[in-house]
Structure formats: C-alpha cells, structure tokens
Design brief:
This protein is an alpha/beta fold. The protein folds into 2 domains: 3-228, Nucleotidyltransferase, domain 5 (2-Layer Sandwich), CATH 3.30.420.40; 239-421 and 458-482, 2-Layer Sandwich (Nucleotidyltransferase, domain 5), CATH 3.30.420.40. It has helices at residues 50-63, 103-110, 113-120, 129-136, 140-144, 151-160, 167-170, 185-190, 230-236, 267-271, 294-305, 312-320, 342-353, 361-387, 404-414, 425-437, 445-455, 467-480; strands at residues 3-10, 14-23, 26-36, 40-42, 45-47, 69-74, 79-82, 147-150, 165-166, 201-202, 207-210, 222-224, 245-250, 254-260, 275-278, 284-290, 393-397, 418-420, 459-461. Helix 11 (294-305) packs antiparallel against helix 14 and helix 14 crosses helix 15 (404-414). The structure holds beta-L-fructofuranose (LFR). Residues 44-236 form the Carbohydrate kinase FGGY N-terminal domain. Residues 246-437 form the Carbohydrate kinase FGGY C-terminal domain.
Length: 482
Amino acid sequence: MSTAVAAVDLGASNGRVMVARVERDRLDLTEVARFENVPVRVAGTLHWDILRLYDGVLQGLRAAGPVASVGIDSWAVDYGLLDADGRLLGNPVHYRDNRTEGIMAKVAAEVTPAQLYSTTGIQFLPFNTIYQLVAASGSAQLAAAARLLMIPDLIAYWLTGRAASEVTNASTTQLLDARTGDWSLDLVGRLGIPATLLPELCRPGDDLGPVLPDVGVADGVRVTAVGSHDTASAVAGVPARGDRFAYVSCGTWSLVGVELDQPVLTEDSRLANFSNEAGVDGTVRYLRNVMGLWMLQESVRTWRSQGMNVTLTDLLRDAARLPAFFSVVDPDDPTFLPPGDMPARIADVCRRTGEPVPVDPPAITRCILDSLALAHRRAVRDAVRLSGRDVDVIHLVGGGARNALLCQLTADACELPVEAGPIEAGALGNALVQARALGAVDRDLFGMRALLRATQELRRFEPVDTAAARSADARLRVRTTR
Ligand code: LFR
C-alpha cells in the first residue's frame, strides 16, 4: 500500500504542487500543477501576489486526487501580517524590494553584528526578516498587526486555521536563538519588535490539523509541517551517502554548504558570512547564499524585454562553446540583487574590476555560469575550513541540476565530483518528511536519502579542467579584494 502526499513548493518564479507516492522502498513524484509567481510593483513597492499563489495551491490540491496530507515549503524571509481578527494586512513585500536599503547599518547601531551573529548565527543579508521589520517600524500596517506569518505558515493558516511558525523558515528571520532554537526575546525587545507578533514554533513532521471544510479541497486531508523553508526541504532531499558531502541547492539562489549537528558561531564564520539555518531533524544547514541562476533568469528577462528572441537551450549551447573562465564577476556583489537590467550591471562590474566585458548573450551567459561555479568553489572551501567537515562529493540539487554546463563547471571549479539531482529535491524532501510523519516510511535522514538514491535519477560529473578555474579564482580575489 502506498501513501500519497502533496508537496506544495513555492519558488520565486513559479509554484508547483506535486504528488508523491511513497512506500517502504518506492517513491515517485508527479507534478499536478505549476503556476507562475509574478511579483507586482504597487505604489513603488514590490509585492508578492499571495492570493494568486494561494489560488494556484488550491487548484493544485484539487487536481491532486486523494492525498493523506499536504506540506508547504517556499522561499524564506518574507511574511504576511494579520490583524487581530486573523485578516491579512496587505500583500507581503518581496525581499528584493529596496525598503531595506541602509537598514542593516541602523540595526548594527542597536545590536552589534558580533552580538547578532553570536545569538542567531545567520548570514547578514539585507533582506532578512529582521531588517524588513525594522524598515516597516512606525508604519500603520505594523502597528495594526497582531501576528506575523512566514509565507508557508500563512498558506498553512489559510488551509487549517492554525497559526504556527515552522522552525527551519523561522531561523531565516535572524530572530531565532541558534543555541536554544527559540525566538530570541532579548533581540526582539531591543529592536522594538513586538514579541506578540511571533507565533509559537512548530517542527517538521508536526501535524497542523485538517484542511478546513470551507477551503473546498478533499475532506480529511491533513496539513503536516515540513522543512517549510524550501532550502531545508531541498537539503533533506539531498541523496547523500554519509556525512562527507557538500550541497549546492541551485535555483534562483545557490545555497552552498554542509550539514552539521551544531552551529558554528565563531568570528571567522561571521566574517565569511555563513548562515546556521535550522534543518530537518535538528540539523544545522551551514551555508552561504550565492546569487544563483537569478542572474541568468534576469538577463533572459532583460533580453526578451529588449525584443531579443533568446531561449535557454540556445544560450547554454552557445555558451558551452566559449572559453572557460575568460571573464568572471563576484555574484555576491549586492549590485546584482534587485530586479533590472542584469547584462548592463554585469558589464559595469567587469569594467570596474578590469575583466573583459562580455558583449553578447552567449558570452554573458558564460560569464554568469563561470562566475557561479567559482562562487560555489569559494563557498564549499569556506564551509569545509570553518566547520572542519571534510567532503568528498558535492550534491547539486534543484533546477540547476538540469544545467549540465553549470554542473561540469562546478566540478571543475571545486575540484570535486558533482552528483547532480534530483531536480525536485525540495518537493521530495517535503514529501518524505510527511510520509514519515504518517508512518509510511520509518527512516532517519540518512535512510530517507538512501531511498532517494535508490529511486531518483542522478548524474555524476568528474572534475576535468581545474587549472582555468584556479587561475580565475586567484585573479578575482585580487581584483575584488575578497
Ligand atoms: C531559496 C531561498 C533561499 C533564501 C532566499 C530568499 O529559494 O529560500 O534559501 O535565502 O530564497 O528567501
């Protein structure tokens, strides 16, 4: 008898509902719905169209057929605010909105970066929830708010009426104490964030209750908390053999790191801007955000808006024919974060750092992929150095696993084999946590990973040409003084 569960996986560019059928030794995944996620700028602020996304989820759940449970994961850091009646106060703001500009410095004046890091262990990214809340302080909306719910928690709340904050995603707020795993009330108090906004925490595997009858999806379906941060589900979905692995969860972002039992809260770790995000089963996702395929997605969007008829297949084919590591940028340059003309920004950065300026779409594509591979190298090496965890292999999961050129370049740059896949690691990690909570599989994280290895298609890339990457890395370090 197999158990069917629905995994809702919301990404920055689209949302998916997948149905997984799980047995002791079997696991298959079918996509039942896919819908666009198109942010909307309203009165100068970039928002998520959350009701459209919720509707996509509902349609997907209706198309899913009978399932025992639903689990929801999405990107991190963003939230909706509810009033005292539980009504949503406006559309959630997109983390790429510029309202958080300059806020990190403002927070640093209240709580030093060293204090903030030793409490939370979270990477300093300008869009973390903590900065979004400080940016919103004094607003009528925040004053009227009774509750804050992260995106997946908000969807779960609409489905069940239960307001809880799942811990893997809660850790990305930069308001959680990395040692206790609870909200840091001290931090919250010092920044003037009302502690009453923060819901009780729940964990992957917790039952959140049945879907409410008036939601209009099949009766009796339960909502189960999963690693509701998509990266937490993706890391749970990494088909690793033991613990000597690094991962690159590669989509809009590349999340690069290792899995640990304990956080690394050292000064060196802070300076390297590494995060200790909460993982499934009490693990620590020790990782750094690398700008990721966003740079390519946004370039493609720019070219199309300029009337160019580009396709990803052609770009990747043409880019693969160009010389490796000829022109590289640091993808972590904050200039690449907001939406807008990406090719122009890449050209500017190249001019600034003395790199050859890539002019046409294939050359720019090549520059992006080479630059990402080098950033993967830096992050893997830093993760190993700072955590003391040795690695023999890199698991590259998520949509980026489709991109053979990026996988090969990552193997070359990291001087390690890359095992690519599953593409749907996030949905698989989401589904396995549900299946386990329902008793359909009886496996720890390593057992779940063995099931993934046995059932999912993986591709292996051995490092071939490592010299070009090494010299480009050395060049970039000098040019960007990283
Ligand atoms: C990936 C991701 C990253 C997070 C970024 C913004 O989809 O969740 O882990 O840093 O989106 O939320």
